[in-house]
Each structure stands twice: as C-alpha cells, then as structure tokens.
Amino acid sequence: MENVKRNTLFPARGNQAAAAARGGLAQFWKRHEKRLLGILFVLPALYLLWQFSYGAFFQTLYNSVHLTNIRGQAVAFCGFDLYRSLLSGEEFWNSCLVSVEFVLLTVLPSLAAALALAALCRGRMPGGRLINVLFSMPVAVSSACVTMVFMTLLEPSMGLVNELLGLDLKWYLDSELALVSVAMVVNWNLIAMDFIFLSAALRAVPVSYYESASLDGADGWKVFRNITLPSVSPTLFFLTVVNILQTFQAFGPINIMTGGGPSGATDVLSYSIYRDAFVNYQFSPAAAKSVLLFFILLGVTMVQMKSEKRRVFYQ
Amino acid sequence: MKKRILAAAAAAVCAAGMLAGCSGQNTGNSAAPSNVENTSSNTQSGRITVTFWHAMNTDLIPELAEQFNQSQDAVTVESLYQGEYGDVLNNFRMAMAAGGQDAPDIVQVYEGGSAFMIESGYATPVQQYIDEEQYDMSDILPLIRNYYTYNGVMYSMPFNSSNAVLYYNKDMFREAGLDPDTPPATFAELGEYAKKLQSSETAGVALPIDTSLFEFNMVNIGKEIVDNGNGRVERATKAVFADNGGGLEVFNAYNDLYLTGAAEDFGSDSLQAFMGRKTAMTISSSSLISTVAKTVAENFEVGVGPMPRVDPDVDCGIPVGGGTLWLANKGTPDQERAAFQFMKFMIEPETQAQWHMATGYYAISQQAYELDSVKAFYEENPLFKVAVEQIMNSNTDAVGPVYAVNMEARSKIQDHWRAMMEQEETPEEAIRAAQDEITALIEQYNATNPLA
Asked: How far away is chain A from the Cα of B377, in angstroms, using its nearest Cα?
C-alpha cells in the first residue's frame, strides 16, 4: 500500500520523462494536480520553518565545529574540540546543574499551585468569576514588567518584601538566593498559564463523577486523588512538557534581574548561550552549547513521552 | 516508536532553533522613520539624512539632534534610542553583518566595546575627518582625548564620559566622630572609616564587584592589565596583571577591606543601599551625583570624594568610562562627512554644558566649564566640583586597557573577585587564575582573528 502511494507522489524517472514527452508540463500538472497543489500549499510554511527553525539549526551545527572570528564568521574547522572543552570545563556543567535546579524550582511549584487553585475554583462560589480572572491575569503581563516589579519588591535595601517580613536578605544579589528570586518571577507567570489550562480541563470532568463520589462518602482528598488528578493527567502531562521546555529557555527575567550572576548562580544554559554569543562574541562555543541543549531537550521530551504511556489516563 | 522519536526530535529542533535563530540571519531594527524620536520639520531636498543610534534613555538626545537640524541646512540627524549599551552594539553588529543597509551612520558605543569596533573594521576612524577638515580637538579634555586615541589615531568622537567617585553619608560621619569634610583617600583609610561607621543596621562601605573599579585602581597605580602598552601600542598577546604585581596589590587592598568585616556587597544596587542608609559609603559612577543628592536631600547630607587609592604614595590618575560616537563604515564617505558635522556639534562647549548639567556626565569640552550657566550650576550643586576636580587633576596619561575580549575578561575578574570575597580563593590564587584564563581568551582570539 505504502509503495503504491510513493510511486504516485514521486513517479519513477521513466514515467516522468514519458509524461514530458507526451505533452509537457501541462499534462504532468493535470495528472498530479492534487498532489502538486498540496505541495504548493505547504511550501510557504516549509519555507518559514526552514528559515527560522531548521536552517538555523543546521547553521548552528556548522558553527559548532568551526572557530569564529569577531564578526561571527566561521574561519577554521576544529572538529569536536569545542564540545570536548565544554564537557571538560566547569562552566557547562554548572549551567546544566543550575538549569535542572531552575526547572525544579519552577515547574513543580507552579504546577502544584495552579492545580490547587484550579481545584479550589472548580465549584460555584460568590465572586468565582472575578477570582478566575484574577488568577489568570498574570499570563497577560510581559515577563519583563513582572521582573521589574519583583526587583522593586525584592530590592535589598529598600524593598517591600524585606521591610514587611523584617528580613535582611539580598535576594537576587545573593548567590544562594538569586535562582530562587528569578524562579519567583517565572512562577508568577507560569502559575497563571497552568491555571487556565487546568481549570479548563477540570470543567470538562463530568459533574456526575463528583456527585457519585460524594454519595459514596468520599472526602476531599479522596475525591482529588481518585477523580480530579486522573481526569487532568493529560493536561498535567502537556503542561509539564511545555513548562520544562519553557523554563529551559527562560531568558528575560534572568537577563534583567541577574545577568547570569552572581558568579554563575543563575547562569542557566540558555542564558550562557546568549552570553557567549552576544556579550562575549564567542559564537562557536555558543553554537556547541546550543547543540548540547538540543540533545538534552530531546532526551527530556523522549523520557516524558515514554512515561506518558504509563501514567497518563485518557478518557 | 520511531514516529515518536521523530516527533520529539522535531519539537526539540524547534526549541533549539529558537535559540539559534537570533544568530543566523537577522532582521535588523531598521531605522524606519516612524521610530525616529525627533520629528524634524526640515525635509527639503538637498539635505543629507544621518541616522544616529544611541543608548541614552533621555529626551535630551533627540532635543540636541533637533537643535543641530535647526542650526544648519545641509544635514538632518534622526536619533533612535536602541536600548542599553549592549543592545545598541548587538543591533549595530547585526545590521553591519547583514550588509550595512539598515545600520546607522553614527552609533554610540560604551568604552568596553571600543576594541570590538576597532578590530571588526565596522568603523571609520573619526581621525580621517579630523585630518580632512583640520579640525581642532584641543578643547577636548586631554585625558579623554588620550583615552580614545590608539596608536596615534582617534577612532571615535568622545561624547559622554564619567568615572568613579566615593559617596559618603556626612551625617553618619558626624555621628561616628569623623570629619565630614575629609573622606578617606586610600583603601586602608576606607577600611578604618568603615569600621567606625559600621552599626547593626548599616554597613561601613559597599564595594561593588565591578571590574571597571579594578581597572581604575590598576591605572591609578600605573600597572597594566595586558601587554603591549595595555593593548594600545600593538594588539595584546597576554594578560600581565598577575605578573607585574599590580593585580595582587589591588586585590589585597580589596581583601583587607573585606577582612575588616565592615564592607558589604550590594552588587549593582550599591548606590540604592547608600541612599537607603544601608551603608555609610560606596563607590559609584560620578554621573549620578545630582540624582543621589536630590533623592536623599531630605534624609541626609551627601559627601563626594575622589576614588580611593590603593597605594598612598602613587597616584597616576583615574581614567574615564562612558561612551563615544562612532562612524559606521558603510562605504559612504558623503554620509560619513555629514555625520561628522553632527559629531562636531555634539562636542561644542554649549552642547556639552547642556549635556553635563542635565545628565551628570562630565563636559568633555574645557570651554564648557567657563560658561556662566555651568558656573551657576556649580553654585547649586557643589558636589559636582569634586568629580570635576578629579578629572581635571588627573594625570592625562591615565588610560585603561584596550583588548577585544575585555567584556568576557571583565566577568572572569569579577568571578574571582567574588570568590576572594567569599574566602574561597586567596588574593594570589584569584589573580593568578584570572590572568591565566584571560591569557587563554586572548590567545584564542588572536588565533581566530589574524591581523591582516
């Protein structure tokens, strides 16, 4: 079956030549009109995809095995030297570690908080709509603005947070707390996004499930454990994937708040790539890091897709 | 399963592509007329239009551009704020890499980007037009003139210059029994004062971990950071600040300050901490004097002193930081000539006086300081005098290093500086490691960017 299909989409050379001989392009077009039209329709999208994703991807691969000059042009082939020096140096592993910590500090808390909020807002209650809107609002605020607001709040000498809580913490200036500070900003945005998805998922759960559960005398936790959680598991899975990919690429808040510092405490992979390429003009190490990041993300996605089979329950 | 892997790979390519996307083709922020800040009334034919990208978040730049446009009828300058220094340089770099059609004619670059501008060949040295017009540069402060002259060639037109000064809280000085009119002049004194000023709520001094301070102190004791005359005679081939002992001297001074227990690190928020009375003293840019004085006017009296010295017996001057104006090398001499007219306007005494009083940057023109408006300004803002004296009294040969990898090198020095502060490294270890790392960077750079 599959072979037949292939043959009509890409006819063998003999057929093509014969078609051309018999009446040229017009006839060829007539015979394959549907398929050719389809290809034409796809071309613009393919072009964009090539230009912005795949083309850049191959350019990155090429750069990662070359040394670049100050203008960013590849000047000498260097094989896998850059990978070798990255993998043997401290900086790359520090970035990996920071990235993983960052994912843990953002994805888990934001999913948990969003799920809790969504579960609370499930039923009807006075002002429920307003609360829903308030909880989802942060998604509409640019992360740069949020970062600036958080910086004002966390400001070590005159910030509101220190003042109200009677603390004397340096937050984003302290190498121990910097990552937590950035994670707070990212969480603020993520929770809102996750909340929207999860409340939509919860609305789709038939009320009858809850009714019969309460008839059976199930308490809140049991209901949550046995009804709510399984019904939103596909959404939770989707959000985990998206959140991890997002936080792995978090850039704005880090750029504004810490610039990867202090001493690499917030130097997540994506930021260190930016720093290499656009602050230090070292394009080839940046390219090599991008390729490694690609493999990491590929691995993460594959692990997630595998575990999806076992844990996610589709209705 | 195969499909799954393929799907996962496709998803990840898209993700990785996003990161790489910016490094490939660029869309360049073309200077579309709608983005231009100053709406020039003059659009008659015959005028050459010059675009100017800058990093100064102030209305004064478009205002100055407009003043220039009104003052003559040959050139129209369109100014465009492009974000912070780093953003401006990146946008410029991409526009030039894409062929230069979207690049501006004039770009403002911070002093740390000077080496990049020279080495990349993206700039036409302004010296070419200074020579062509036999323009007299003697009004520009000699220190600043020297700072931006490399090997006898002035590459860019000085515009906004500042350096570092010591800010101190005079009220706290009085409470601690210190003379509010004599700030500490050396790091040793800074430590003594800090100990006396320290309290449970206030640090004695906030010392920002900022490599420009390190460079200032190095210049001040007459020691070089890199070889070949700090990279100014010939391209630097290695870092020398550990070998010549200078780096250790400076780091020891910083470390002694930390050992007093009265110095705290507030990073980039040092000045904020000072204004919030979390520290009695700090070191920061001279360009912020009036902002600070105005902000805290009702809370306490601010004092300003020169940047403390490391060696009490040596004072080779304090160099400048800030930015300069560069001519983009787009192969359009007529545009360059027109752009040069604007540059000359930007360094005129009246322009510099306006700039000085509005922003706090130094006026780089000597005559500007003789203007009545500036003199009156000092009556109201006496603190400025200290900063201006620092630059006027400085040894005019006080110039810092120029080398292409200096942005990365600065962050290396900062990392080791912090490690020293956190007592993970001794000053010797920190300086030695920083020198080795920077030498490796320079060697790699020189290997991939052979001199023509």
From this structure: 30
CA-nearest residue to A304 within chain B is B8
* Claim to verify: residue A289 and residue A223 sit in the same structural domain: yes
Are residues A72 and A93 both part of a single domain? Answer: no
Q: Are residues B288 and B413 in the same domain?
A: yes
Whether A127 and A266 share a structural domain: yes
Count: domains in chain B: 2
> Which of A237, A234, A213 shows the shortest CA–CA distance to A225?
A213
Closest approach of B389 to chain A, Cα-based (Å): 31
State how far the Cα of B233 lies from the Cα of B153, in Å rounded to an integer: 11
Count contacts between A and B (CB, < 8 Å): 141
Residues B218 and B131 placed together within one structural domain of the fold = no
Q: Is a pLDDT exceeding 70 seen at residue B263? A: yes
| Alpha carbons B445 and B312: distance in angstroms, whole number | 37
Residues B181 and B148 in one domain: no
Does B169 share its domain with B258? Answer: yes
Partner B, chain A 39-78, Cβ-Cβ below 8 Å: 51-57, 59-60, 63, 67-72, 75-76
Decide if B273 and A290 are in contact by the 8 Å CB cutoff: no
At position A213, the amino acid (one-letter code) is A
Asked if A248 and B276 come within 8 Å (Cβ–Cβ), the reply is: no
A208 interfacial to chain B (CB closer than 8 Å) = no
Asked if A158's CB is within 8 angstroms of B16's CB, the reply is: no
Which residues lie below 8 Å from residue B107, measured CB to CB, with a gap of 6+? B52, B53, B54, B88, B89, B92, B325, B326, B328
Q: What is the model's pLDDT at position A313?
A: 62
CA distance A208 to chain B (A): 35
For residue A78, the chain B residues in CB contact (below 8 A) are none
Cα A293 from Cα A289, distance rounded (Å) = 6
Q: What is the span of the domain harbouring residue A26? A: 2-83
Considering the domain architecture, whether residues B206 and B333 belong to the same structural domain is answered as: no
**Is pLDDT at B8 greater than 70 in this prediction?**
no
What is the secondary structure of B355-367 as a DSSP string? HHHHH-PBP-BTG
8-state DSSP, B371: S
Model confidence at A7: pLDDT above 50: no
| Complex-level ipTM | 0.75
Higher-scoring residue by pLDDT: B335, B30: B335
Mean pLDDT value across residues A102-127: 87
Q: Give the whole-angstrom CA distance, residue B352 versus residue B204.
A: 36
- Claim to verify: residue A65 and residue A113 sit in the same structural domain: no
In angstroms, the CA B226 to CA A169 distance is: 38
Give residue B29's pLDDT. 40
Compute the distance between CA of residue B42 and CA of residue B337 in angstroms, rounded to an integer.
19
The predicted pLDDT at position B431 comes to: 96
Q: Total domain count for chain A? A: 2
Distance CA A210, CA A192 (A): 25
Chain B residues with CB under 8 Å of A263 CB are 414-415, 418-419
3-state DSSP assignment of residue A147: helix
B349 CA to chain A: closest CA distance, Å? 34
A68, B381, B419 from A273: Cα distances, Å:
15, 45, 23
Is residue B313 included in any domain, yes or no?
A: yes
Strands B75-81 and B106-110: unpaired
Question: At a CB cut-off of 8 Å and minimum separation 6, what does B92 contact?
Answer: B53, B82, B103, B104, B107, B109, B122, B328
Say if the Cβ atoms of A297 and B12 lie within 8 Å.
Answer: yes
Q: Where are the alpha helices (DSSP H) in chain A?
A: 2-9, 13-31, 33-49, 55-64, 81-88, 90-120, 128-136, 143-154, 160-165, 178-203, 207-215, 220-223, 229-248, 252-257, 269-274, 283-311
Position A1 pLDDT exceeds 90: no
pTM over 0.95: no
| Residues B231 and B127 placed together within one structural domain of the fold | no
CATH number of the domain to which B104 belongs: 3.40.190.10
Radius of gyration, alpha carbons of chain B: 24
Instruction: Please tell me whether residue A242 adopts helix, strand or coil conformation.
Output: helix
